[in-house]
Amino acid sequence: MSQRDVMIEAIDVNKEYRRAGAIIRALIDINLQIKSGQFIIISGPTGCGKSTLLNVLSGLDLPDSGKIIFDGENIARATEDRLAKIRRQKVGFVFQDFNLVSSLTAIENVEALLWPTVLRSREIEDRAIAALRDVNMLERKDHFPVEMSGGEKQRVALARAIIHRPRVILADEPTGNLDPESETQVMDLLKKINKEVDTTIIVVTHRERLSSYADMTIKMSKGAIVSK
Amino acid sequence: MSLREKKKFVIFCLMYTGLIFWTSYSLELANKEGLEGLGTSSFLVALVVSLGLTMLYAWLIVSKNRRVWATFKCIGYTNSNISSLILGQIIFTTLMGFIIVIEVLFHYTAFTTYWLAAQGGGASAEVLIGLIPVVITSATFLVIQIIGFMIMRGKITKVRPMIALKKVGE
C-alpha cells in the first residue's frame, strides 16, 4: 500500500487527562491506519475514549505522545492556525447537536464555512446551493434552524460539512438525537458521499447497528482499541 | 449577524447613540467654553464609559455564543477570523449609532428652522451640535472600540473547539 492511500495514521498515540486529582488514560497506545475513501465506525461504551480519538485524529486536541499523520503531514505538533487551516480545507464536521447558528438561515449556516476564504460571495452561494441540493434541503434554504426537525437540521449540518469538498468527514454521534427514519436518511447520505465523492468518513457512535454501513468497525474499551 | 441578534443589537445601538450624542455635545461645549469648562471633563467621562461599554459588548458576544465560536473553530476558523467577525459586529453597531445621531441632529435643525419660519420670523438654521464634533467623536469611538476589543480578545483564544463536540447539558 502506498503512502498516498493512507488518509490518517495514528502511531503510538497516548492521551491522559487530569480530573479531580486523578489521571485518566483516555487513549492508550493507539495504532491505526485509515485509508482514503474508507467508511469507518468507531464504537464503544460511554467514556471509552472514542470522542477523544476523534478529537486527536482531527487536530482538535493534541496527543501527549505519538504521531498523527493526516494526509501525509504530522499534525501532532502543528500550530493552532495550521490545524485550523487543515480543518477548513480537508475536514468536514458533523455534530450530535447539529451546532447550527440559530440566528442564521440554512443557506447562511452552510455558507459560513467559506466566509473566511477568498471566494466571491456568488461562488460561495452557488456552492451552498449545490451542497443543500445534495442533501435534499434546497427547498428549506431560507428557513432558520428553529423551523426544522432534527433530521433536517442534521442534513443542513451535513451540507455545511461537504461545501468545501473535504477529504474526510468526522461525525460525532451524528444520529444520537434523531428518530430511526432520520437516522437512516443521514447514514444513507454519508454512505452516498463516501461512494460518490470517495470521501473518507469516520463516525463515532455507540449504536452497534450502524456497523452495517462501515468498511471497518473499530471497537474501543477503556482507551484502547480492542478489535478492528 | 449583528442585525439577527435584535435585542442585543438594539440595546447597544441605543446606548452608543446616547454616548455619541453626549460626547459630541460635550465636545461642542468644550469648544465654546474652552478646555477648563465642564465640556472637557464630560467628554473624557464619556470616552471612559464608551471603553467600558465596548468591553462589555465584546464580553457578551464571546461569552453568550461560546458554542458558536467553538463550532466555527472546529470547521476551520482561526482566532483572527473570529476576531474579525466580532469586531465587525461592534463597529457596525457603533456606525449605526453615528447615523442615528446625524439623523436626529438633521431633523432637529430642520424642525427648528421650519418652526421659526412658521412663526413669521427669519428662518435661520439652529445647529445643536456641529458636524466636526460629531465626526471627531465617531472617529475617537472607532479607535476606542478597537482598544476595548483588543483588551477582550484573549477571551476568544480561550474558547476551545472541543466545546462544540460536547452534548447539550453535559
Overview of the structural elements:
With 228 residues, chain A is of the alpha/beta class. Chain A has one domain (3-227): 3-Layer(aba) Sandwich (Rossmann fold), CATH 3.40.50. Helices cover 31% and strands 29% of the residues of chain A. In chain A, the strands form two sheets. Chain A has a six-stranded mixed β-sheet, with helices on both faces. A four-stranded antiparallel β-sheet of chain A has the order 2-1-4-5, with helices on one face. The mean pLDDT of chain A is 90. Chain B is mainly alpha-helical and 170 residues long. Chain B has one domain (6-160). The longest helix of chain B is centred in the middle third of the chain and has 40 residues, at 79-118. The model of chain B has no long low-confidence stretch (mean pLDDT 81). Chain A binds chain B through residues 51, 54-55, 60-61, 80-81, 84-89, 91-93, 95-97, 99, 101, 103-104, 112-113, 115-116, 160, 172-173, 176, and chain B through 1, 4-5, 67-68, 71-79, 81, 84-85, 161-162, 164-165, 167-168.
Q: Which structural category do the helix and sheet elements of chain A fall into? A: alpha/beta
Task: Report the β-strand fraction of chain A as a percent range.
Answer: 25-35%
Tell me the major beta sheet of chain A: 6 strands, mixed
Record field, number of beta strands of chain A: 10
CATH architecture of chain A: 3-Layer(aba) Sandwich
Beta-strand share of residues of chain B: under 5%
CATH superfamily assignment of chain A?
P-loop containing nucleotide triphosphate hydrolases
Low-confidence stretches of chain A: none
- Number of DSSP helices of chain A? 6
Main sheet: strands, sense, barrel of chain B:
none
> Secondary-structure element order of chain B, as H and E?
HHHHHH
Integer count of domains of chain B: 1
Q: Give the strand tally of chain B.
A: 0
Rg of chain A (C-alpha, Å): 17 Å
Q: What is the straight-line distance between the termini of chain B?
A: 27 Å
Rg of chain B is 20 Å
| Spatial shape of chain B | elongated
Q: What would CATH call the class of chain A?
A: Alpha Beta
* Low-confidence spans of chain B: none
Largest interface: A-B, 31 and 23 residues
